[in-house]
Amino acid sequence: MHRRTPRFETSAFLPISRQGETASNVVPLWDRPVDAVTGLLEAASAPARPEELVGEDSARAVFRSIMAEQAQASRRHLRLVPIGVAAGSLAGLVVGATTLVAASVLPPSAAPVHHSTHHPSTSLSTPATTDTTSGASQTVSPATSGNSSNSTANTTQSTTGAQIGSTSVVSPPATVGTGPPVVAATIPKTHHSKGSDSSGSGTGTQASGGGGSQCTGTSGTTPTTQPPQFLVPTPHVSRATTTGSGTTKCTSTGTSRGGDHGGSKGSGTSSGGTGTAGGTSRGGDVGSGHHKGTHKQGGAGTTTTTLETIPPATGTAVPAQ
Amino acid sequence: MPSAPISSGHTVGQTAPDEFALLLSAAKGGDEESFAAIWRRFQPGLLRYVRVMAGGEAEDLTSDTWLQVTRKLLEFEGDEIAFRAWLYTIVRNRHIDWRRRASRRNESSMEFEVLDRHAGVEDPVAVVETKMSTDSALALVATLPPDQAEAVMLRAVAGLPVAVAAEIMGRPPGTVRVLCHRGLRRLEQNLRAASAKDPNQSSGVGV
């Protein structure tokens, strides 16, 4: 037998029906046991009894412990923040001081070729010279600092047998200039060179003397007989010169970035026959930059490679030598 | 529009919205008394819900739930309904985990535990007929199929709207409505059967 559920407000049964519940959603209304169901629901949702609140003390204890734990963690975090800041500052200070001391203690540059032009007002010269000669590794990183400067140089050379000669890499580091950037790359005759140059960077190219030699970089093709001249937004001039004899294959890539704050980082690898030589120098008066060079050298002879970063004083184009 | 909770006139732990907001804010600030006030308001309903669903494990499950609530209290944002939903969601998840563990241990069915624990007699209807206490009412609700019992408890005891109850149960609101309706109808049928046995006490239950 099907009995239809009457659909009307349940206010006679459930107080909550004032909010719109209808009988069909809540309780069957067609019989008296509805009162019993209502009573059942009332009993099920009766106010708290004492035995249901016996766990209050333990809940309070848990609350206390967790809140104390969270507060302690918060305090610990707050303490660690200034410690971290102080540690970072200290580390930076130590690194800076160490660099300054190292730069000032080392002897002045014995670079065979070094050209540097500085801005008249703010330029600071910090040449970094790497001189590698026939199995010997020498690193010279003099620093002449006025305001701030740093210079580092690393050279690695491995020479065996066939390589006779020397390779010098001079990478004067950062100079400070304000003029328009100029990059000049000088390639002696009979050399092909590609110099790289990116925004605000100067590229030094590599040349080698002697028989046929070739220098390649990453960008910018330099004629073999014409001194290349790049105008790029950098205050630096990088110059590379390699002299010697024999067959030398050179690859030089590098960038030097900087505006008023400039820097230079150079690295070079020279290999001749079975030997390799490389060097990295980086210096900066105020800023940073890098210059990389790779040189390969074959045959006998003496090869000298010089990489320079020369910021122009006036910002005009500086022709390569 | 979410429907209003089914209630017999009062829901366990119901507080005014402003009052709850104040209590919650103070509890977040570390005020133990405020937290205790919140606990006193919500614990009975929570405990009853878990008793219907899990029987003998109710104390442990609610304690575990409050532990979790205390840990995450600072992260909670919402009104009283949201808090209630959060509370019941936590305890429900704990209950599901407990059931999984229990099934792995091949323990007896939860429903029988609930029945035995709360009725204390063979026929819970008989208890309801003689004295409608909270425990006996919960025992009667516990005789329902689990999903119906849960729907009734969330709607009638916890006082949650259909939408919130549906969200907690992971069911569509329409399904929750149907479950609740069927559960109440079954309760009514049980009570009718009891009244048929003894016409003198037919509708006197629950009063």
List its traits:
heterodimer; A: 321 residues; alpha+beta; 2 domains; 5-stranded mixed beta sheet; elongated; disordered N terminus; disordered C terminus; B: 207 residues; mainly alpha
Care to give the gist of this entry?
The complex is a heterodimer of chains A (321) and B (207). By secondary structure, chain A is an alpha+beta fold.
The overall average pLDDT of chain A, rounded, is 51
Stretches with pLDDT under 50, minimum 5 residues of chain B: 110-122, 127-131, 202-207
In whole angstroms, the N-to-C terminal distance of chain B is 33 Å
Q: Hey, roughly how much beta strand do the residues of chain B contain?
A: under 5%
Tally of alpha and pi helices of chain A: 2
Q: Report the average pLDDT across residues of chain B.
A: 80
DSSP strand tally of chain A: 15
* Domain module tally of chain A: 2
Shape of chain A: elongated
Number of spatially distinct domains of chain B: 1
N- to C-terminal distance of chain A: 112 Å
Largest interface: A-B, 44 and 61 residues
**Rough shape of chain B?**
globular
Largest sheet of chain A: 5 strands, mixed
Please provide the ordered H/E string of secondary-structure elements of chain B.
HHHHHHHHHH
What's the order of the H and E elements of chain A? HHEEEEEEEEEEEEEEE
Number of separate helices of chain B: 10
Neighbour order of strands in the largest sheet of chain A: 8-6-7-11-14
Rounded to the nearest angstrom, the radius of gyration of chain B is 18 Å
Taken as a percent bin, the fraction of beta residues of chain A is 25-35%
